[in-house]
Amino acid sequence: MKIKLDENIPHQLSPVLTALGHDVRSVFDQGLTGHSDETIWRAVAEEQRLLVTQDVDFGRVAAAGAMEGPGVLLLRLGMPSRGTLLKRAKALFQSEDVSRWRGCVVVATERKIRVRRA
């Protein structure tokens, strides 16, 4: 799957997801750090990548249907340290059929996953 990591996701996740067979790019690698959500979403949509983020705004806008695109994985952890984010994201991509998340807003907490289809 094609994935884009938002700037609030540890860059150490990129090689982990690449090793699992995903095509990963990050906002940081593409020089989009600090750009508006609209600019980032435009890049996500053009590249048809699932956006992995902690930014609730992406989840809200995508859920409202205001932004059409390949989907959003919103990580909502109680204590989102770098280590817990890496651990949870890795577990999700190892255990879930993420190809089914295309066009969806997926909210993942420490214990649950909610998938909202467009």
Strand arrangement, major sheet? 2-1-3-4-5-6
Query: N-to-C terminal Cα separation, in Å?
Result: 19 Å
- The SSE order reads EHEHEHEHEE
When the domains are counted, the total is 1
Shape: globular
Number of helices: 4
What low-confidence regions span 5 or more consecutive residues with pLDDT below 50? none
DSSP helix fraction: 25-40%
Q: Radius of gyration, rounded?
A: 13 Å
What is the strand tally?
Answer: 6
**Largest sheet: number of strands, sense, barrel closure:** 6 strands, mixed
How much of the residues is beta strand, in percent? Answer: 15-25%
Mean pLDDT: 89
Would you write up a description of this structure?
This protein is an alpha/beta fold and 118 residues long. The protein has one domain (2-117). The protein has four helices and six strands; from the N terminus they run E-H-E-H-E-H-E-H-E-E. It has helices spanning 13-19, 37-47, 56-63, 82-95; strands spanning 2-5, 23-26, 50-53, 71-75, 104-108, 113-117. The chain has a six-stranded mixed sheet with strand order 2-1-3-4-5-6, sandwiched between helices. The longest helix is centred in the last third of the chain and has 14 residues, at 82-95. The radius of gyration is 13 Å and the shape is globular. The model has no long low-confidence stretch (mean pLDDT 89).
